[in-house]
Structures are given as structure tokens and as C-alpha cells.
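Try this one yourself first.
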């Protein structure tokens, strides 16, 4: 969801989405597509992929929703830690996790999905200013 929104806001940028526990066999949940479609982002193929060292080498910025994930990757690949950011910290200077809405439902899903898109929007604005 964050990747699709950021790509919508920064269409000229190369943006990829990776996960630490991504399972290529799991499809994107219908509620995610519905949420994005309501915001003008059409469905397109997406296969969850695991984060690789090559992704870290390639990226200019690497955003994590949770501090524990950032720390896990930074511990293993310290040479790339200067590219790594907690999403809400980069967006607003808040060293807080962003709840992943994928496992939530109802109002909790909507609230956290909107917060995620707000954080991604703030990131896009900062990135656009620095180009």
C-alpha cells in the first residue's frame, strides 16, 4: 500500500516494496485494493518479495514501518544504515512505529491505513523538496 501511494505521488521515482517476512504465495488482501482504488490507484500485479542485499545497495532511501525491523536490518547490514529510516521519523520526526493495517479490520484498518498514507505523503513531500 505504501509503495503504490508513494509511486502515485512521485511517478518519476523508482520505488520498490520489500518485506522481511514476505510470502510470494500470499495475494494482496481485497481490503487493500479497495482502499487504494477509492483513492484512484488501480489494481496492478504485485508479488510480495523478501528484502535482499542488492535492494539495500540500490536504494537511496529505505523506509521501515517498525523500529524492530529497521534494527534487524541495520544490525545485519550496518554499511547501509545511513539510508535507513523509520517511516514516521522521516515524515514527522516522530520515532514511532507505523502500525501495519494489513492485519486489522473495520475502523482500526481504516484509521491505520489513513495514517500510513499520511506518513507516506509527508515522505513524498520531503523527497520532492530535496530533488
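Now uncover the answer:
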Amino acid at each position: 500500500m505504501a509503495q503504490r501511494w508513494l509511486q502515485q505521488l512521485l511517478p518519476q521515482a523508482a520505488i520498490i516494496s520489500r518485506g522481511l517476512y514476505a510470502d510470494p504465495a500470499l495475494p494482496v488482501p481485497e481490503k487493500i485494493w479497495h482502499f487504494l482504488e477509492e483513492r484512484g490507484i488501480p489494481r496492478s500485479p504485485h508479488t510480495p518479495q523478501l528484502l535482499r542485499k542488492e535492494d539495500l545497495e540500490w536504494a537511496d532511501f529505505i523506509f521501515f514501518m517498525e523500529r524492530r525491523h529497521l534494527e534487524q536490518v541495520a544490525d545485519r547490514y550496518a554499511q547501509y544504515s545511513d539510508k535507513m529510516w523509520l517511516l514516521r521519523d522521516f515524515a514527522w520526526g516522530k520515532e514511532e512505529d507505523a502500525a501495519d493495517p494489513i492485519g486489522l479490520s473495520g475502523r482500526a484498518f481504516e484509521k491505520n491505513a489513513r495514517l500510513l498514507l499520511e506518513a507516506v505523503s509527508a515522505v513524498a513531500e520531503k523527497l520532492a523538496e530535496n530533488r
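Discussion: The chain has one domain: 2-129. The CA atoms of residues 21 and 50 lie 6 Å apart.
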